[in-house]
Amino acid sequence: MSERQTKSFLMQRLREIGVEPASRHGQNFLIDLNLVQMIVDSAELDRRDVVLEVGTGTGSLTAMMAQQAAQVVTVEIDGHLYELASEQLLEFDNVTMLHTDALKNKNHFNPEVLDTLGGRLAAVPDSRLKLVANLPYNVATPILSNLLSCEHTPHSMVATIQKEVAERIVAQPWTKDYSALSVWMQAQCDCEIVRVMAPSVFWPRPKVDSAIIRIVVNEEKRNSIPDPTYFHQFVRSIFLHRRKFLRANVVAAMKKHLNKEQVDQLMDEMDFGPDTRTEQLAVETLLAFTEKVRAVAPAWKL
Ligand SMILES: C[S@@+](CC[C@H](N)C(=O)[O-])C[C@H]1O[C@@H](n2cnc3c(N)ncnc32)[C@H](O)[C@@H]1O
Fold first, then answer.
1. Scanning 11, 235, 253, 264, which has its CA 20 to 30 A from the CA of 229?
2. CATH number of the domain that 282 lies in?
């Protein structure tokens, strides 16, 4: 199908079932099928793979993945789209559709989704979990970030997200996009932008550019983080004002747990001068610094 045919098919089917794409659910459908294929190819699926798709939409990406993966678990919040996709996906016995919100809240996946994934992962020999999705942009960051902290470690994540978020994920120190998200992702994964996409490849058009991002979990990197929750929270709190001096950020983040002299002592041990800024610290340096802080303030929690 051409882009125009895909768009008119979509418009007609959605009109038949009385659906207007809702911006609150990030309903921007990818109508360039070459790009849908690029997402599938970037995921390098095979019969060991259990795919999690957040946002079934009309099921076009789901159907392509079902032909290559062992299992696809696909989650859709919108009842009309869930029903439409159920018709499209009838022929696939390796697709499990869930009509629910993929997230329980900002920091956690929906347990129903995790339980279903757990069942499918246990049933497939040598299984690997991959997230592959054209993500709803309003929840793209929590979906990617929370999957890294949940009980099923993903092998990789290939997703369409806002270009701005993709740039933050791959950003390097001293750049405007370097943030807690960059550190959290790069500390555990190898991240690359596969393709930048203009609004015109979606219907309806989003207001911003998009990108396909490929994030591959790196076990060696992950194993080098002794306490991921502590690291995540510490990085988030010192990056709240990333352009400020590091000392002020650490003093504010650790108040009641470290006094200023203790912070100065830890900064000295790391050879950080008084004018060191949070935004200049490389991921490995932040990890080493977190471990020093954790040794002195192990009970700290936000
Ligand atoms: C960008 S569209 C992608 C649809 C389809 N996969 C495609 O490629 O065209 C995002 C989809 O996610 C659904 N969605 C939005 N928020 C969701 C959530 N929290 N949990 C599950 N699905 C959600 C929307 O209803 C929409 O169908």
1. 264
2. 1.10.8.100
